Structure formats: structure tokens, C-alpha cells
């Protein structure tokens, strides 16, 4: 990989942006080189040293300035690249890059591919991002040199970059192809040759020799040289001060050897460092080398130009006087887009061909001129367009500029803001410093204070220590005193202990006494027991005494009875008399006994009867009991009971088992029977079918028999008739033989005919009778059989249906017996839940009832004693209050009455409902009172004895004035005057 | 191929139809007989008529437990009868008994052979129509059933075969008998695999 070309040294010229760009470029180149040379696989240190080596002197200087945190980093290529990045790290100016991008037009001779790549490179730094493709496309459209292509590009809608490039390339290729065609055509055509000829003519004066001077003079605005066909290329440059003598190498007037066109060129004749035409070796003389056609008119529009590279002399003999030129044509497009090599032309140049300019040529030139002018106009339009684009660009640029300016202003503003902020911060800092100083001062002051305080406290501590010492001393004194006290107390304790011992002894003594007391008490108890036994004995003795007294009384009564003995003897006599009478009666008794005997015999006869009756009764009873048992059993069958149930259950089970067995048997039988029935049916069907067949056969046979019989009869009768005929014939024969013929014959014949007819009739009758009888008989018998079979079939069917029903019943029974169902239900069903709920409710209700009952039983006394107490106290209080109120009321009422009495002079008493009695203060006696009743319309005075005596006042005040108060006051006045009068009277 | 197109009901599907019917029938009875307050029921369209389903979580839970187990049993042909009994809570007297007799049928023999399992070929619409008729009859029973004037609750007894295992949460119960019972046979419906016979028996009060 040593073939990889290392990047050139990094140049540090130009602006910082340029340098950054250069660095970027160099970096990518370097990385590519490393990759290409295979160094990237090696140690980073090697890469680093390679980098330093390749970067060149300027870069090395920069490298010297770097500082590294660690020495190992110096050998790390990545670190170095980063360092360089940061060193050159100036951001590319986007505006500038954009300006470069937008002003980049296609240069002359630049192919579309080159132009596009250049644009793409430029667009990299512009930061177009998503717009990049579109802007590239626009740039191509604007910057392309060929106006025809531009038109086409502008014409196509939905133009993309790719499309644009394709269009341009296609145009290029088509141009090439057309040019090639043109050149091919031009090989035989005149136009190009004419041009050569024309130039040839121009140069004709100089001759065949190449004149460098003329070349120089005719190529004032030299252009890039075309591609040399033989690999020799040079570019004539304008020179300000050309030397007098031409260069021996290049044949031109070059200033310096280094600028010589033939530098690094080898002559293909002698291999010397000069052009072949300057070669001194004349064995292979190049007569004329190069001539370029620079037509002044066609120059500006980039018309065709040719230059001759080598003109070789043809081998002698063949074309003695002809020169052959090897030409390389070069055609330039108006934009110099494509360099096209035309095939080598062979032009025949002849020195004898130069002639004066013909009018046709002039015409041609004029045409060329007009074409050129048209081109100029076109170009001018392009220029104007370019200018407009430039203007647009300028506008864009200005916009950008304005934008940048604004940004600048904004930045300035922000800078000023930042400055203000910085000032503010500095101010704040100063304030904070002041605060800090103040705080430090305070701190110092407080420190001083605290130190003072500490000192004071230390002093206090020392004082307290002294005090503690004093206190210790005093406590020691106290301790000794306490010890003394303790000793005293100990002595007292000892004394107390002694006393305790004494007391203990006394206690022992007391206990001994107590024991004695207990023994005494037991003795006393024994004595009391004895006393009780004695008292019991005493009581017994008393009881015996009482019984003895009873005995004495009995003895007395016996003595009394002995006294009555005589009377008893008298009675004995009387009894003897009665005995005699009784003997008589006994005699009578014998008679009676005989009668009795008779009766007894009768009774004996009756006894077996009675026995029988009794037995019958017993039987009836037993039967009744049995009946009852049966009844109970029958009753119990439905209802559950103890013994009968078990018995019945067992019997039922047994019966079930037997039933099961029976049912199985029955099922089997049923199956058998059904099978048998089926088979029987089948057989029956078969039999009936056979029977039918047989009947038919029989009928046939019977009919046959009948026929045969009839035939037989017929045959027999025929035979008989034949016999008779034979007989008659014989008779006839005999008759004829005998000699009697004639009339006798006819008679015989008629008789025979009659006989035959009779026989025929008989046959017919027989036939008819026999046919009818036989048919009827057969029919009857068949019918009878059929009916019989039908009956049988019906019977079988009935049986089948019966069996079926039986089978069904049995099957149902069997199913029941075989698969008794099990009843299942969910354990937590709603019924159970409801039941539970109910039980819970019931229980709670019962509990409540109990509690309430208990509460009721305990009654009001204990139900709520507190409340009761409270109520009682309340009652008491209210009573007391009531009493007090009454007292108050009575006192106040009394007071009121008294006051009324004192003030008004009347004592008012309520004597009943709405009745009031008024007695005056100055009344002479208690009888003098007035009564008033309260009415609906006021108060009325009731007539009294006293009121009758006051007729005048009543008349005046009540009847006249209708005023009771006036009447009362008048009465008061009168009474008062009366009393005063009396007093006066008494006084006087 | 015409057999394939034909409507086919599997044993499981038939059991599901039966259980669905039971669910609606039981709910309907609970509603019609006023065992639970009417506001706890929610109307739902089924079989082309409006039926009422209890919203009570306890009842719902009970019915789902019951019917899932019953479906299993019906599929395995273990059940012959389900009885919904209405019990007087106070004295445990059975007042009403709704018997749902399950009978097992063979279905479509040809189709079963083809499908290699027991299937029926009855049209679902027709089955639902039959069920609807039964449901309407259930709703109409209120006109002649005696009024339940005491606190009542219900339970469902499953008459299963004796060889059937008793699952968890289930227990054996005593068979019930109603004294002086009056039986009313309602319409039957069939899924061509199961035939459901509904009988209500109630205590005749003189």
C-alpha cells in the first residue's frame, strides 16, 4: 500500500475560515491516506507520528504549542486530531458558504458532472438540510451555461435533481454525438477544409514553416489548450515582456526556463528536452508542427479551431510533393462544455493552392458575422439573466446581512444587558462583602462577650466549689449527730425486743388457758347430750303411763258387760225356740233340694251350650282384635309407626325383591313371549298363505273331483245307456231276428230316444246340483276357516297389546327399582339461608322478650331507680315550691285584703261563686253587710236586711247616679259621721 | 353436503339451551310468585318476549352454581328431574313444587353418525318458540296458583342418579311431598336431544 499518495502539507495561509476548511480537507485526506496505506491498523503512536510528519512545518509549529494532560496522549492520534480540531475550530461561515454556492456557475469547458460535484461540495457547508436537493437543482438550472438546456429544464415540470442532471447529461451526450456526426460529415465537406485552407492561405505567406511569432500574435487571448493527440500538451500564455529570441526548446518567447512550455517534454525523435520541431536531428525532420486557427470573428463564439501537431513527410517516391498533416480538430461548444476529439484528419495542403479571396468567401464571412452577432445577442440575454440572478443573490445576501445585523444588534443588546447584570452582581458582591465584614465584627464582639462571660462563669464555679467544701464539712457534722441518734434508737430497739419476748411468754400462757377452756367446753357438751337422753327416757315413761290409764278404762267396761249375762241366758231360750222352727224349715228344704237337683241337671245340660257361646264370643273378640290390628296396620301403612312399619318395610322390601325377580322373569317371559308372538305371527302368516294356497288347490281339486264325478256319472250313465242301447239293439236284433220288424222298430227307437233324453236331463240336473252344492260347501268352509283365523289373529293382537302394556309397566317399575334417584341440592340455597335468618331473628326476638320480661318482673323499683329518685326529688321540690307559693299567695292576699280594708274601708269576702260580701270598717255590727253579685254587664247589689235600711243612699247613688263607688263612699261617710256623732254624743 | 349445511345441535349446546331455559324459568317463577321484591328484577329480552331476571347477587350466585353443575349432569345424562320448591320459612312446609323433568332423546341418528357424536337437527328458532310458549304458560300460572301469604323461600332439588358423585358445596336432601297436591302439566319443549317437561304442583287449599 505504499503507492497511496500522502496528502500535501497543510497550508496555514488565508483567513481563519479558510484555514479551518483547509484543515478539514486535510484531515479527511489524511484519514483516507491512513486507511489506504493500511496504517490505521497499526499503533496509534505510529499514526500520530505520521500525522505530525505529514502535516508540514506550519502544522508542526501548532503541534508544539499543544499542552497535554498526560504524556501518553501525545502519541494518541485521536487526541491529536481533537486538539487540531479545537485549534482550527472555527465554524464555517454559512452565509459565505451560501454566497459561494449561489454564485457558482458552470465554467466554460466544465462538464455537468464536474459542475454538480462542485456544487455538492459547496452545499455541504451551507446547512440547507432538507432543502439541499431542491437548491442544488435550482442552482444547476440557473448556473448552467447552455441556454437551450436551461430552457428545457425550465420547461419540464416537477423537476428533480436527478432529472435535471439526467437532462443535462443527455444534452451533453447528444451534443457530442451531433458534433461527431458533424465532424464525420466535415471530413468530406468543404466548410472545415475551407477554414483550414483559409488559414493555410493566411499562413501561406510565411510558408510551410511554422512561425512562432505569428502564432503568438494571432493568439492573444490564449485559452486552455486542447487535448493533445500525442500526449503533448501545452498552453501558450500571454507574456508581458517576451524575450527577443525564441526558446530553443519550445520555440516560443518564454521568460524563464522554468516557465518554458517544453519543460519536462521529450522529443520523440531524439529524446531531448524540446519539442520535436526544434529538434536538431534533421533525419526525421518535422517540417511544420502546430498552427491554431484563430479567426477573429469566430474566436469570441468559440468556433472551430485546429492545430497541427505533426506533419510528417511521406515516404519518398509515392507522393513526391505532397505533405500530410495529422490534424487534431477541436471543437468548442459555446460554453466549453465538452472537449471532443475529432478523428485525425488528413488534409492535403498544397503550396500551389493559395489564391486571392473570392466573393463567396466574403459572403460566407458575412453569414458567419451575422450568426456571431445573433450569438452575441443571446449571450447578452444570458448575461442579463445572470445579472438578474446576481441581483437576486444580492438581495438574498442583503437579507442575510440585515438578518445578521439584527442578530448583531441583538447580541449587542444582550451584551449590554450582561454588562448591567455584571455591574449589578458586582454591586451585590460589594454589599455582601460589607455584610460579611459586619458579620465578622459582630462575631468578634460576641466572641469577646462570651469570653467575659466564660471568665465570670469560671469564677462562679470556683465559688461554688468553695461552697461545696463547706457543705461537705457541715454534712460530716450532721452525720456524726445522726450516728449518735442511731445508737440511741438501737438501744430503744433492744428494749422493745425484750418487751416483745415478755409479751410472747404471756401469749403462750394465754394459749394454754384457752386449751383448758376448750376441754371444759367439750365436757359441757357431753353433759348436755346426756341430759337430752334422760329427757327422752322421761318422755317414754310418760307415754307408758298414759297407755296404762287406757287399760284401766277397758277393764271397767268388761266388768259392766259381765253384769249383763242374765239377760243373755234369756235370749238363749228364745233362740232355742227359733231353732225348732228352723228344723221344720229344714224339712221343707229337702223338697226344695230335690227341685234344685232337677234344676242342676238342667243347668248341666245348658253348660256346654254356654261353653260354646263363650267360645264363640272369644272367637269374635279375637277376630275383632285381628280386625283392629288389620285396620291399624292398614292405617299405619300410610303413616309412619314403630313396629308395624319395620315389619311392613321388611315385607315390602322382600316383596320388592321378589317383584324385581318377578319383573326380570316377567321381562324375560315377555321377551320370549314377544318373540314367540312374532314367530307365531310369522308362522301364522305363512300358514294362512299356505292355507290359502291349499284352499285354492283344494277348490281346484274339488272342482276337478266334481267334474270327474260328473264325468264318471255321465260315463256310467252313458255306459248304462249304451248297455240299454246294446240291450235294445240285442232286443231289436232278436226281434229282427225273430222276424218282427217295421212298426216295432220305430217304436223302439222313439222309446230309446225318450230314454236318452231322460238320461240327459238327469245328467244335467245332477250336474247342476252337484256344482252348486260343492261350491257352497267350499265357500262356507273357507269362510269359517278365515273367520276362525281372524279371531285367532285378533286374540293374538290383543294378547300382544296386553303384553306390551304389561311390559311397559314392568319396565317403568324396573326403572324405578333399578335407578332410584338421589335428591341433591346446593348446600347454601336460599331456603336454608332464609331459614337461618329466621332462626337468628327468632332467637334475637326471644332474647329480647326474655330481657324485657326480666325487666318487667324487676319492675319500676329497680327499672330506673335514678330516674325515680330524680322524679321524687322533683316532686318534693315542686310540692315545697307549691306550698311556698301558697304561703306566699295567702300572705300576699291577706296583705292585699288588709291594705284594701285599710285604704278603702271595706272588707270584701268572697262568699260563693261570683258573690261578694262587703262590710264596712265603721259598721256597728257584723250583721251590717252588703252583698254584690258579678253579672254580665257589671256588678249588682243584692238585697239584704242591711241594704233595706239604706233606702235613701240606694235611691240616690245607685238608681240615680248608677255608681257603686260613690254609693259605697257615701255609705262610708255616713257611717263614719255616725260613729263620730256617737262618740261626740258619748263624749258630750 | 346438505347434511353439513343442516342445523346441528350438539349435546353440550342442547344442555346449554336447557339450562338457559331453567334460568329464565326459575327467575320467572321467583318474580311471578313474589318471592322477592319486584324492584330487584331487571327486564331482559329473550325468546322474543320480555323476561325478568333477578339482580340479587345471592340469587344470581346460587343460580350460576346450580346451572353450571346441572349442565354438566345433563350432558352426562345424570339428571332426571329438577325441582324448584317454594318453602314456607316459618314451618318448612313445601307449598309449591315446580318439576322440570328432563328426558333424553336420540336426536338425528344419521347426522350423529356423520358427525360422530350425538347431535340434533332441530331448528333453533323452533326450539325457542317452544320455550317461549312454556314461558308464557309459566307467566299465566299466577292466575290459578294460590296466593303465598307467608314468608317464603325457594330451593332447587336435583334428582340425580344414585351413582352420581356429590360435588363440593352440594348435599343430599330429603325428597319433598306436598300434602293434598294439585298437578298442572305445562307445555313441553324438546331440543331433539332433551325433552323438558314442566309440571307445577301446589297445595290445594279448600
Automatic annotation (TrEMBL), chain A:
Primary localisation category: nucleus
Segments forming a coiled coil: 415-585, 670-888
Key words of the record: Cell cycle, Cell division, Coiled coil, Mitosis, Nucleus
Entry-linked Pfam families: MAD
Subcellular location: Nucleus
Recorded superkingdom: Eukaryota
Keyword field contains Transport: no
Keyword Cell cycle: yes
InterPro entries named among the record's database cross-references: Mad1
Region called Disordered, residue ranges: 217-243
Protein family according to the UniProt entry: Belongs to the MAD1 family.
PANTHER family noted in UniProt: MITOTIC SPINDLE ASSEMBLY CHECKPOINT PROTEIN MAD1, MITOTIC SPINDLE ASSEMBLY CHECKPOINT PROTEIN MAD1 MITOTIC ARREST DEFICIENT-LIKE PROTEIN 1
Name of protein: Mitotic spindle assembly checkpoint protein MAD1 isoform X1
Organism, as annotated: Bicyclus anynana (Squinting bush brown butterfly)
Name of the coding gene: LOC112057983
TrEMBL record, chain B:
A Pfam family that the UniProt record links to this protein: HORMA
Main location: nucleus
Residues annotated as domain HORMA: 12-200
SUPFAM superfamilies assigned to the protein according to its UniProt record, in alphabetical order: The spindle assembly checkpoint protein mad2 (SSF56019)
UniProt cross-references to PROSITE patterns, sorted A to Z: HORMA (PS50815)
UniProt keyword annotation of Cell division present: yes
PANTHER family, per database record: MITOTIC SPINDLE ASSEMBLY CHECKPOINT PROTEIN MAD2, MITOTIC SPINDLE ASSEMBLY CHECKPOINT PROTEIN MAD2A
Entry similarity comment: Belongs to the MAD2 family.
Name of protein: Mitotic spindle assembly checkpoint protein MAD2A
Organism of this sequence: Bicyclus anynana
Gene symbol of the encoding locus: LOC112058143
Amino acid at each position: 500500500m505504499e503507492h497511496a499518495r500522502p496528502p500535501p502539507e497543510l497550508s496555514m495561509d488565508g483567513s481563519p475560515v479558510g484555514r479551518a476548511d483547509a484543515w478539514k480537507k486535510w484531515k479527511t485526506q489524511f484519514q483516507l491516506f491512513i486507511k489506504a496505506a493500511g496504517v490505521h491498523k497499526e499503533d496509534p503512536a505510529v499514526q500520530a507520528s505520521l500525522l505530525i510528519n505529514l502535516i508540514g512545518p506550519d502544522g508542526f509549529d501548532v503541534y508544539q504549542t499543544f499542552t497535554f494532560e498526560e504524556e501518553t496522549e501525545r502519541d494518541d492520534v485521536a487526541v491529536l486530531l481533537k486538539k487540531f480540531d479545537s485549534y482550527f475550530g472555527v465554524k464555517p461561515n454559512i452565509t459565505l458558504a451560501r454566497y459561494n454556492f449561489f454564485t457558482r456557475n458552470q465554467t466554460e469547458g466544465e462538464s455537468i458532472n464536474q459542475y454538480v460535484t462542485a456544487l455538492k461540495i459547496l452545499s455541504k457547508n451551507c446547512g440547507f438540510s432538507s432543502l439541499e436537493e431542491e437548491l442544488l437543482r435550482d442552482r444547476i438550472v440557473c448556473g448552467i451555461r447552455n441556454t437551450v438546456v436551461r430552457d428545457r429544464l425550465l420547461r419540464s415540470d416537477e423537476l428533480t435533481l436527478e432529472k435535471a442532471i439526467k437532462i443535462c447529461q443527455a444534452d451533453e451526450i447528444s451534443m457530442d454525438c451531433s458534433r461527431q456526426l458533424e465532424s464525420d460529415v466535415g471530413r468530406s465537406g468543404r466548410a472545415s477544409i475551407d477554414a483550414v485552407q483559409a488559414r493555410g492561405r493566411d499562413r501561406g505567406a510565411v510558408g510551410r514553416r511554422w512561425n512562432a511569432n505569428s502564432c503568438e500574435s494571432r493568439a492573444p487571448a490564449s485559452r486552455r489548450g486542447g487535448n493533445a493527440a500525442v500526449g503533448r500538451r501545452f498552453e501558450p500564455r500571454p507574456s508581458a515582456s517576451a524575450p527577443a529570441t525564441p526558446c530553443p526548446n519550445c520555440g516560443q518567447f518564454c521568460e524563464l526556463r522554468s516557465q518554458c512550455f517544453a519543460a519536462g517534454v521529450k522529443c520523440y525523435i531524439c529524446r531531448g528536452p524540446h519539442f520535436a520541431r526544434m529538434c536538431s536531428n534533421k533525419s526525421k525532420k518535422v517540417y511544420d508542427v502546430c498552427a491554431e486557427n484563430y479567426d477573429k470573428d469566430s474566436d469570441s463564439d468559440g468556433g472551430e479551431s485546429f492545430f497541427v501537431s505533426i506533419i510528417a513527410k511521406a515516404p519518398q517516391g509515392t507522393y513526391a510533393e505532397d505533405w500530410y498533416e495529422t490534424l487534431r480538430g477541436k471543437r468548442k461548444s459555446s460554453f466549453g462544455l465538452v472537449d471532443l476529439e475529432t478523428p485525425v484528419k488528413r488534409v492535403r495542403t498544397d503550396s500551389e493552392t493559395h489564391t486571392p479571396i473570392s466573393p463567396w468567401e466574403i459572403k460566407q464571412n458575412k453569414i458567419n458575422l451575422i450568426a456571431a452577432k445573433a450569438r452575441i445577442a443571446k449571450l447578452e440575454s444570458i448575461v442579463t439573466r445572470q445579472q438578474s440572478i446576481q441581483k437576486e443573490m444580492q438581495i438574498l445576501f442583503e437579507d442575510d446581512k440585515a438578518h445578521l445585523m439584527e442578530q448583531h444588534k441583538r447580541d449587542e443588546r444582550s451584551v449590554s444587558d450582561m454588562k448591567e447584570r455584571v455591574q449589578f452582581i458586582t454591586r451585590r458582591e460589594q454589599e455582601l462583602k460589607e455584610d460579611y465584614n459586619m458579620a465578622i465584627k459582630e462575631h468578634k464582639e460576641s466572641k469577646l462577650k462570651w469570653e467575659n462571660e466564660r471568665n465570670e462563669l469560671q469564677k462562679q464555679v470556683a465559688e461554688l466549689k468553695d461552697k461545696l467544701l463547706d457543705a461537705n464539712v457541715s454534712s460530716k457534722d450532721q452525720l456524726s449527730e445522726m450516728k449518735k441518734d442511731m445508737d440511741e434508737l438501737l438501744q430503744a430497739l433492744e428494749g422493745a425486743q425484750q418487751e416483745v419476748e415478755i409479751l410472747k411468754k404471756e401469749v403462750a400462757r394465754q394459749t394454754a388457758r384457752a386449751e383448758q377452756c376448750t376441754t371444759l367446753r367439750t365436757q359441757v357438751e357431753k353433759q348436755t347430750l346426756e341430759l337430752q337422753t334422760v329427757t327422752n327416757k322421761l318422755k317414754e315413761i310418760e307415754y307408758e303411763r298414759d297407755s296404762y290409764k287406757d287399760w284401766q278404762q277397758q277393764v271397767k267396761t268388761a266388768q259392766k258387760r259381765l253384769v249383763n249375762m242374765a239377760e243373755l241366758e234369756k235370749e238363749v231360750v228364745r233362740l232355742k225356740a227359733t231353732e225348732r222352727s228352723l228344723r221344720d224349715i229344714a224339712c221343707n228344704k229337702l223338697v226344695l233340694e230335690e227341685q234344685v237337683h232337677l234344676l242342676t241337671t238342667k243347668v248341666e245340660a245348658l253348660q256346654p251350650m254356654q261353653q260354646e257361646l263363650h267360645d264363640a264370643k272369644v272367637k269374635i273378640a279375637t277376630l275383632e282384635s285381628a280386625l283392629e290390628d288389620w285396620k291399624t296396620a292398614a292405617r299405619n301403612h300410610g303413616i309412619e309407626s314403630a313396629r308395624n312399619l319395620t315389619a311392613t318395610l321388611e315385607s315390602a322390601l322382600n316383596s320388592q325383591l321378589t317383584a324385581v325377580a318377578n319383573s326380570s322373569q316377567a321381562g324375560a317371559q315377555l321377551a320370549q313371549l314377544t318373540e314367540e308372538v312374532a314367530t307365531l305371527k310369522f308362522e301364522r302368516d305363512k300358514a294362512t298363505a299356505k292355507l290359502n294356497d291349499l284352499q285354492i288347490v283344494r277348490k281346484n281339486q274339488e272342482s276337478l273331483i266334481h267334474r270327474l264325478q260328473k264325468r264318471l256319472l255321465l260315463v256310467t250313465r252313458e255306459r248304462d245307456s249304451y248297455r240299454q242301447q246294446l240291450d235294445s239293439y240285442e232286443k231289436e236284433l232278436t226281434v229282427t231276428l225273430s222276424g218282427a220288424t217295421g212298426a216295432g222298430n220305430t217304436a223302439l227307437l222313439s222309446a230309446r230316444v225318450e230314454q236318452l233324453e231322460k238320461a240327459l236331463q238327469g245328467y244335467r240336473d245332477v250336474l247342476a246340483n252337484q256344482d252348486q252344492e260343492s261350491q257352497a260347501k267350499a265357500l262356507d268352509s273357507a269362510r269359517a276357516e278365515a273367520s276362525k283365523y281372524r279371531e285367532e289373529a285378533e286374540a293374538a293382537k290383543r294378547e300382544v297389546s296386553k303384553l306390551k302394556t304389561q311390559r311397559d309397566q314392568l319396565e317403568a317399575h324396573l326403572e324405578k327399582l333399578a335407578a332410584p334417584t338421589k335428591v341433591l341440592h346446593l348446600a347454601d340455597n336460599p331456603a336454608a339461608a332464609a331459614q337461618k335468618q329466621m332462626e337468628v331473628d327468632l332467637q334475637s326476638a326471644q332474647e329480647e322478650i326474655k330481657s324485657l320480661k326480666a325487666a318487667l318482673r324487676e319492675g319500676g323499683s329497680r327499672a330506673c331507680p335514678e330516674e325515680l329518685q330524680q322524679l321524687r326529688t322533683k316532686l318534693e321540690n315542686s310540692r315545697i315550691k307549691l306550698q311556698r307559693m301558697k304561703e306566699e299567695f295567702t300572705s300576699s292576699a291577706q296583705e292585699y285584703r288588709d291594705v284594701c280594708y285599710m285604704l278603702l274601708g271595706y272588707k270584701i269576702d268572697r262568699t260563693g261563686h261570683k258573690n261578694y260580701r262587703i262590710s264596712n270598717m265603721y259598721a256597728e255590727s257584723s250583721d251590717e253587710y252588703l252583698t254584690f253579685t258579678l253579672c254580665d254587664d257589671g256588678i249588682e247589689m243584692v238585697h239584704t236586711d242591711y241594704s233595706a235600711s239604706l233606702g235613701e243612699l240606694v235611691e240616690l247613688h245607685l238608681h240615680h247616679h248608677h255608681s257603686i263607688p260613690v254609693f259605697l263612699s257615701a255609705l262610708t261617710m255616713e257611717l263614719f259621721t255616725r260613729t263620730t256623732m256617737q262618740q261626740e254624743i258619748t263624749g258630750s | 353436503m346438505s347434511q353439513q349445511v343442516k342445523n346441528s345441535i350438539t349435546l353440550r349446546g342442547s344442555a346449554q339451551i336447557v339450562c338457559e331455559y331453567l334460568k329464565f324459568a326459575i327467575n320467572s317463577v321467583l318474580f311471578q310468585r313474589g318471592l322477592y321484591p319486584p324492584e330487584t328484577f331487571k327486564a331482559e329480552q329473550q325468546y322474543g318476549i320480555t323476561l325478568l331476571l333477578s339482580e340479587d347477587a345471592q340469587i344470581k350466585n346460587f343460580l350460576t352454581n346450580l346451572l353450571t353443575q346441572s349442565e354438566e349432569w345433563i350432558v352426562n345424562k345424570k339428571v332426571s328431574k329438577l325441582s324448584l320448591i317454594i318453602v314456607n320459612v316459618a314451618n318448612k312446609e313445601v307449598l309449591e313444587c315446580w318439576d322440570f323433568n328432563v328426558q333424553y332423546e336420540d336426536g338425528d341418528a344419521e347426522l350423529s353418525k356423520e358427525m360422530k357424536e350425538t347431535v340434533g337437527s332441530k331448528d333453533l328458532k323452533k326450539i325457542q318458540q317452544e320455550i317461549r310458549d312454556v314461558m308464557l304458560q309459566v307467566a299465566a300460572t299466577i292466575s290459578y296458583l294460590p296466593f303465598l301469604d307467608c314468608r317464603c323461600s325457594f330451593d332447587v332439588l336435583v334428582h340425580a342418579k344414585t351413582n352420581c358423585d356429590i360435588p363440593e358445596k352440594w348435599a343430599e336432601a330429603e325428597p319433598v311431598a306436598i300434602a293434598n297436591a294439585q298437578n298442572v302439566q305445562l307445555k313441553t319443549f324438546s331440543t331433539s336431544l332433551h325433552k323438558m317437561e314442566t309440571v307445577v304442583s301446589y297445595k290445594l287449599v279448600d
